[in-house]
Structures are given as C-alpha cells and as structure tokens.
C-alpha cells in the first residue's frame, strides 16, 4: 500500500512537517509530484471548482501554473487533530500581462491512515498587488 510520511495521528511536529512537505511540493510546480500526496480518488473543492482524483488534480494544476506565472507559496499550520490539518496560506503570481496577485486562503485537509490526503477544501481570495509589494520571492 502506498504511504506518504508522516502518518496520522499527527502531533505538532508531524503536522508541521506535513505542511512543509506540501509547501515544497506545490512550489516545485510539478503537478505529478503534487498529485502523489493525494489518494487516487481524492476530493477537492478549490474555490468554486470540484476536482476528483489524481488525473483531475494533474490537469487542474497544469492549467493553473500555465496561467499563474512565477508562482510562490507559503503555508502555515493553523490546527490539527488525529488525521486532519488546517492551514492558512498565501501565494503570489503574475498573469501573462505582468499583473501581480497575492492569493490568501485556508485549507482543510483530511488524511487516510497511509498519510495520503483524501479530501482538500480550499477557500481562496485574490488581491491585485504591485510587483514592488511582493513579499514572497
């Protein structure tokens, strides 16, 4: 059976490690790498989109990073229980015209016993920023 360490039940150290691993994977901008952290039948809500399974995750992330250029993400642990983690995050990117954005949000994660995320629910808001106002580089 596939496993993704650390495994639940989480404590502060392992929840923090899981968040850092997710941040590192997303900052790689490699959809295949990111998708391996999720169950094959994973359920997502990302803004108003509903995404199911690794194939849809890869398709979604591929399109995302074709539009969100020079993407840089920072995640922070918000809370955790046995197999759940909540994070707050912000990321910055620019579009093809050069307009910069900062996106803020929260995610709720639910893991199976093998450490794979089976559910991810994200609420995200974008704010226009000037390039000189970037915080994440």
Automatic annotation (TrEMBL):
By its UniProt entry, which Pfam families does this protein fall under? DUF1348
Q: Which organism is it from?
A: Mucilaginibacter pocheonensis
Q: What is this protein's record name? A: Nuclear transport factor 2 (NTF2) superfamily protein
InterPro entries linked to this entry: DUF1348 (IPR009783), NTF2-like_dom_sf (IPR032710)
Out of the domains of life, which is the source?
Answer: Bacteria
